[in-house]
Amino acid sequence: MTGPEPRSSTVTVRYAGGEERRGPVTMGQANMIRCMLRDEPEHINIHAVWPVPAGTRTASAIDALRALVVRHEALRTTFPHPPGEAPREQVVAAEGAFTVTVLDHTALPRDAARHADAVARGNRVERFHLNRDFGLRISLLALDGTPLFVALAASHAVTDISALSVLEEDWRDLLAGRTLPAVTAFTPLDLAAEEATPGGLRRSEASLRHWERIIRTGPQAMFAEPGAVGAEVEAEQLTLRSARGARALAGVAERTGGLPSTVLLTAWCALVAHRTGQSSCVAAVPTSNRFLPRLARSVNTVSQDALLSLDVGVPSFDALLSKAWGAALNAYRHSQFDAVRLWDMIDAVTHERGSRFTRDVVFNDVSTVPAARPAEANGEAGETGKAGERGEAADTRPAEQAADADGPALDLVRGPAQVLPTRVLTFVHETAPLLRLGMWVDPALFPPAEAEGFLTGLVRLLEAAADGDVPLSELTAVTGVRPVERGAGWTRVDGSWVSPSEVARALSGALGGVPAHVVEGASDEEGLTAYLACGDSPLTPEEAHTALMDSLPGRPGVLAPRRYVIVRDAPAETDPPGAWLRQPILREGAGRDRHR
Can you state the angle between helices 58-71 and 161-175, rounded to 10 degrees? Predict the structure, then answer.
C-alpha cells in the first residue's frame, strides 16, 4: 500500500550572514570530484534520513536547515571550473538560497521510514553540477502538515557520511533551542591550507609510499576465486542487530584491554581472510581518516581511504589483535594523499606487477560518529523494527534470533539493493547496546544463506574470543564459515591467487584468439610464463602485456605472466604440455617496457 500521492510544494530558503571565501580544493574533495565526474550519480551521491522530533513545525525545521547552511561553509560551497576540466578551486558564498521540497501526505505507507529512505535515494539519481548546485537536495515529508522526516541526498564533494551525522546532530540541537558552540573543526578551506604546509606535503608523500608498498606486495584482490567476475555488482543490504554481539564485543575488550572498535576490526579481518584463504586482509577503512581531533567533527568530505593490510599469519585471535591496532593506526596516518598522483602510481605499479588493484573489501566504522541513531538512513532507514512488520518471512532468519530484554539476540534483515564497485561493503553503525551493522556482499560469492552465516559467524567468533583466546586454525569450527574451495587449477603467485588456465584464456581473447599456454615457474620469483603462437603476425611481449592489462578489470583471478615467449606455431593438441617449451622461440621478454 503506497497511499495517495502527496501534495508537493517547493520552498525557497534564503540565507545570509556567512563569510565569502575562496581557495584550492582539499585532497579529499579532489578525490570525490574525480569519482563524481566518472561514476553514475546514484552510485557516488550519498543520502540520509533524519526523523523530525515530535512537535516540530515545518517552519522551524526549515529555519534550522537555514542555520546549518550559515554555520557550515561546506554547504555554501561551489566549484567553478572550465568545461572539460576538473575543479581545482572552491568558492564559499556569503549569501544565497536553496530549496526544500515539502511532500505533505494524507496517508503514509505502513513503513514510513522505509518510504522516506526511498525518497532520499530518489534524490540521488540526478548529477550535482559542481559549479552551481547547492550541495544538498532536501525533501521534507509531512503527514497532514506535520513534518516527520527530512530525506536528503548530498553531493559527495561537500559532505561524507560522517559530516551528515554532524549536521543531523546540529540540526536537532537547533530544534531543541540549544546554543551551538563555535565551529572549531577544520573547514574545507582550513584543511586545504593545512595540506599545503610542509608537514601536510610530507604526510601526502608518506601516504603514497604506504599504498605503494601494499599494492606491490599484497594480494591483487581479496576475492580472487571462481565466480568473482565483473567490476561492479548489485548487492542486497543485510543488516545485523545483535545484543549478543554487543555483549561479546564488550567481553573481548574487557578480557584483552583492546578498544571495541579494534576488536571488531580484528574479528572482521580474521573472518574475511579465513573465508578468502588469504594470508593477509587488505581493506579500505574510509571513515578512519577522521582520527585527528580537528577532523572528527568537520563538515567536509574527508573521504579518502585508509588502506589497511593486516597479516593474519599468527596462531591466535589475541596475537592478531595485538598487531591490529598498529596496522590500523599505520593505515589511518597514511590516508591523506593527492588522488591523481595515487592513481598514477597505482597504474604504474600494476602495469609492472601485471595486476589490477581491486578495492574488494571496505569496512566503514561510523559507530563513534555523532548522531549515530538507530533510525538514521545511509541505506538503513526503517530497518530497526521487527521483521514481521516489514513482511520478511520468519524462516529466513537463524533460530538464534530470539529476542531478549536488551534487544534482539541476533536479528538479520534484508534491505534494498544497490550497485557497488566492491565485493564486500560494511558499515558499522553501533557497537553498544546492540551490535548493528549493514553489509552488502557479491551474491555470486555469497548466496543468501552464506551471507547470513558470515554475520552469524562474526558474532560466534566474538563470543568465543570473549571466553578466551581463539586459535585461528579453528575458525571454521568456531564460526561455521568455511574457506572458499578454488579447485586444483588455482595457485598462489606473487602473493595472489591465480588460475593459469584463466590467464591463458584471457591472453588468447585479448590477442584475438592467438593460442596461449601458461605455466607456473619453479619458484614464486619466477611467476608465470606465457607461450604465445603468433603465426605470421609480428607479436611482441610488450603488445601481449598491454593487451592483457587492458582486459584485466573484472578478472581478479588473472595475473600477468612475468615472461612472454613468442613462438610461431602451437604444438598439436595431442602433444604433451611440455611440447610448448620445445618450440623455437621468436621473441621473449617481460613486456613491461612500454606503459601507456
Answer: 130
Q: What is the DSSP letter of 382?
A: T
In whole angstroms, give the CA distance from residue 237 to residue 413.
Answer: 8
DSSP 285-298: -GGGGG-SHHHHT-
For residue range 206-233, what is the model confidence (pLDDT) as tens digits? 999 999 999 999 999 999 999 998 888 8
Residue 294 pLDDT grade (very low, low, confident, very high; cuts 50, 70, 90): confident
Between CA 464 and CA 471, with CA 468 as vertex, the angle to 5 degrees is 75
Beta bridge partners, 563, equal 529
Q: Find, among 155, 498, 163, 448, the residue nearest to 299 by Cα.
A: 163
b/e 441-453 (16+ beta carbons within 10 angstroms → b):
bbbbbbeeebbbb
C-alpha grid cell for residue 127?
A: 548529477
Structure confidence by residue, pLDDT tens digits, 382-434 = 222 222 222 222 222 333 333 444 578 999 999 888 888 899 999 999 999 99
How far is 223 from 496, CA to CA, in rounded Å?
Answer: 10
Q: What is the mean pLDDT of the chain?
A: 89
Residue from 268, 331, 330, 325 nearest 304 by CA: 331
C-alpha–C-alpha distance, residues 467 and 440, integer Å: 29
Indicate the SS3 state at residue 244.
Answer: helix
List, as one string, the DSSP characters of 2-49.
--SPPEEEEEEEEEE----EEEEPPHHHHHHHHHHHHS-HHHH-EEEE
pTM, two decimal places? 0.83
Cα dihedral 311/315/316/320 (nearest 10): -20
* Residue type, position 83, single letter: P
- How far is the C-alpha of 271 from the C-alpha of 135, rounded, in Å? 38
Handedness of CA 520, 526, 530, 531 (dihedral sign): negative
Instruction: Indicate the SS3 state at residue 278.
Output: coil
User: Regarding predicted confidence, which is higher, 14 or 338?
Assistant: 14
C-beta of residue 349 within 8 angstroms of C-beta of residue 212: yes
Q: In the block, which residue shows the cell 522530533?
A: 53
* CB count in 10 Å sphere of residue 259: 14
**CA 224 to chain CA centroid, nearest Å:** 18
Three-state SS at 202: helix
- Residue 161 to residues 72, 433, 436, Cα–Cα distance (Å): 15, 22, 16
Dihedral sign from CA coordinates of 393, 396, 402, 403: negative
Please give the helix or strand (H or E) that residue 105 lies within, else none.
strand 95-105
Counting every residue written for the chain, the total comes to 596
Q: Specify the pLDDT at position 143.
A: 96
The CB density around residue 243, as the number of other CB atoms within 10 Å, is 20
Helix axes 27-38, 339-353, angle to 10 degrees: 60
Buried b (16+ CB within 10 A) or exposed e, 75-94: bbbbbeeeeeeebeebbbbe
Question: What are the residues facing 449 on neighbouring strands?
Answer: none
Q: At what angle do helices 198-217 and 188-195 cross, to 10 degrees?
A: 80
pLDDT of residue 68: 97
Cα–Cα distances in angstroms (integers) from residue 218 to residues 88, 170, 382, 484, in the given order: 33, 42, 39, 19
